[in-house]
Design a protein that fits this description.
Number of helices: 12
Order of helices and strands: EHEHEHEHEEHHEEHEEHHEHEEEHEEEHE
Radius of gyration: 22 Å
Shape: globular
Strand order of the largest sheet: 14-15-16-17-18
Low-confidence stretches: none
Distance between the termini: 48 Å
Number of domains: 3
Mean pLDDT: 94
């Protein structure tokens, strides 16, 4: 199949629920979007909203943070777990991550210390219910993924990754853990891994990541992060077999030498690329659409790097900068910050893309700022 670059851009936006009028609405829309893309990435940094909140806000008409909280910690239809890094996914996907849970047992840095206290941690939770790391004190520090941390935190983390615990709820970024079997439906919790071998697992994950972005190429990409044992060889085999089985369809884009792939389930979207009702949305730094930034640069001619971990002197733009898309193109990037004490949303910088007539888009962008302000129940918007 051969398409042009404009059709490719609109296709990705359509699969993301960003083209034309909203297709996702309210609490059910949150669940439907996450089921469609597999997962949304989680990150605790909160400058103008956490990345998963901004991602959902840009897709789901009427999104409120309580909708997501309820789906995670009351309805238990969604779950926090590791997919493409830390993520939020549907509870039905739990069995497919058995390989991740098994692999996590070999990735721990403080194996002996954790083994010595695991049973004690589980018994405390059995007796007391949900706990956070501050509720259990072993008086010891150990090596952790990022740095040294308390043994209680590392033990809870290890039990979480191997599936014995889930996040019961959060108080801001503070996590409270409980036994998984208390909250995951029995038929899901006891299900065997649906993937019979590693190649089945790789193919399932490739399909999942293509749907998450909308369209991918057979290249090394951040979109494939988090897949256990997945390297170039496994990626090529997975793509080859998925094409042979008709699960994914090769796409040639005029003017680009690389081949792209879409899922067979999504191919019909190419016939529905109407861009009526041009929306303008802020895009989160870890938004699904931005997982392969080289692909975005190739198709949309938009270069984006998340500079949150870049030293200030070396940043091209700013600490936490959001791309802005209007209709079927990126028009600018913005730096927006919350002033929680005064309930003010501050727009600190706007960088317009070349050849953009900003007079045509200023009011649309202001509308984006007002909607983000409303998401946080703020009273004022200030453009610095």
């Amino acid at each position: 199949m051969i398409i042009n670059k404009e059709e490719a851009m609109r296709f990705i936006l359509a699969t993301q629920g960003l083209l034309g009028e909203h297709v996702y609405e309210g609490k059910q829309g949150v669940r439907d979007f996450i089921k469609r893309v597999g997962c949304v990435q989680y990150d605790p940094i909160d400058v103008c909203g956490k990345t998963h909140e901004i991602t959902l806000h840009s897709r789901v008409n009427g999104f409120r943070k309580k909708m997501l909280y309820d789906l995670l910690y009351k309805d238990r239809l969604l779950i926090d777990y590791f997919d493409k890094n830390m993520a939020i996914l549907s509870i039905e996907d739990w069995p497919y991550f058995e390989r991740r849970r098994e692999k996590s047992k070999t990735l721990r840095r403080s194996e002996e210390e954790i083994l010595a206290v695991k049973d004690e941690v589980v018994n405390v939770i059995k007796e007391q219910g949900p706990v956070s790391s501050s509720d259990i004190d072993f008086g010891k520090k150990v090596d952790w993924s990022w740095s040294r941390t308390s043994l209680s935190r590392d033990a809870l983390d290890a039990l979480y990754f191997e599936g014995k615990l889930i996040i019961h709820h959060k108080n801001n970024t503070r996590k409270f853990y409980d036994l998984s079997k208390r909250h995951i439906p029995e038929q899901i919790f006891n299900s065997v891994d649906p993937n019979q071998d590693d190649i089945d697992y790789y193919k399932w994950m490739v399909l999942r990541r293509i749907r998450a972005v909308g369209m991918l190429w057979n290249k090394s990409s951040d979109a494939f992060l988090g897949i256990v044992g997945f390297k170039s060889k496994q990626r090529k085999v997975a793509f080859k077999e998925l094409v042979e089985e008709g699960e994914i369809v090769p796409i040639t884009i005029k003017g680009i030498k690389d081949m792209f792939y879409v899922t067979n389930k999504d191919i019909n979207i190419l016939d529905k690329l109407n861009c009526s009702g041009k929306r303008t949305e802020l895009i989160a730094p870890l938004d699904n659409m931005m997982w392969d930034r080289n692909l975005i640069q190739e198709l949309f001619n938009f270069e984006y790097r998340w500079e949150v971990y870049t030293p200030a002197k070396k940043r091209k733009y700013g600490y936490y900068v959001l791309p802005v898309i209007s209709g079927d193109k990126f028009i600018s990037r913005v730096e927006v910050r919350k002033d929680k004490d005064n309930k003010v949303l501050r727009v600190e910088n706007i960088w317009w893309e070349p050849n953009i007539d900003k007079s045509k888009y200023t009011s649309r962008l202001d509308n984006c700022f007002e909607r983000i302000m409303n998401l946080h129940n703020f009273n004022y918007l200030v453009k610095v």
